[in-house]
Amino acid sequence: MSEKDFQAHEIRDQIHIDYKYTLGGQSKFFIDLKNDKKLQGTRCKKCGKVWMPPRIACSECFEDTEWIELPHTGEIMVSTIVWYTTSDFIQKVPYAVAFIKLDNADTGMLQGVFSENLVPSKIRKGQKVKAVFKKEGERKGKMTDFFFVPENEYENWISKPEYEGGE
Ligand SMILES: [Zn+2]
Q: 152 CB contacts (<8 Å, ≥6 apart)?
């Protein structure tokens, strides 16, 4: 049979997949985020390096780490502005994503940075930011439970009905 005579027969169908996955050794980060708006990093028991996002073993000396609660404030290490995104964030475009080093942490975490009036000067390296959380009951124990805003916009963001500040 020649290629031009070929006709594929196609049937439309659906696949529904119901599943769950585990966050393993990093579960505490997500549980404490959901229940208590805590940002838990880990500290190496040997060299003292503080990891955020948390690592259960130090990547530099391979020793076990211990949990350490970090403040909700930090600063931007590097950032970019997002114009194309997934359905979860399409209403937020344009927004920024940044590596943020929380105060007392030694490493940076990738997270969204929202601003009322986003201009590049607001997401520069060194910009102080603070975490804003979804309300109790809306938090699912996921990274989308919180985001960062420039420090001087914090009070404005937590006054919105859908968000709240940490304690
Ligand atoms: Zn270490």
A: none
Ligand 1 center from residue 46 Cα (angstroms) = 5
What pTM was estimated for this model as a whole? 0.87
Digit-coded pLDDT (tens) for 39-82: 999 999 999 999 999 999 999 999 999 999 999 999 999 999 99
Residues 86-111 pLDDT 10s = 888 888 889 999 999 999 999 999 99
79 Cα: distance to centroid of ligand 1 (angstroms) = 27
- Give the start-end residues of each E strand in the chain: 39-44, 50-51, 65-70, 73-82, 95-102, 109-113, 128-134, 146-150, 163-165
Distance 56 CA to ligand 1 centre (A): 11
- Nearest of 95, 89, 162, 86 to residue 129 by alpha carbon: 95
Q: Distance from the CA of 51 to the center of ligand 1, in angstroms?
A: 10
CA of residue 46 relative to chain centroid, distance? 27
Q: For residue 110, how far is its CA from the centre of ligand 1 (angstroms)?
A: 21
Q: How many A from CA of 61 to the centre of ligand 1?
A: 4
76 C-alpha to center of ligand 1: Å?
24
What type of residue sits at position 119?
V
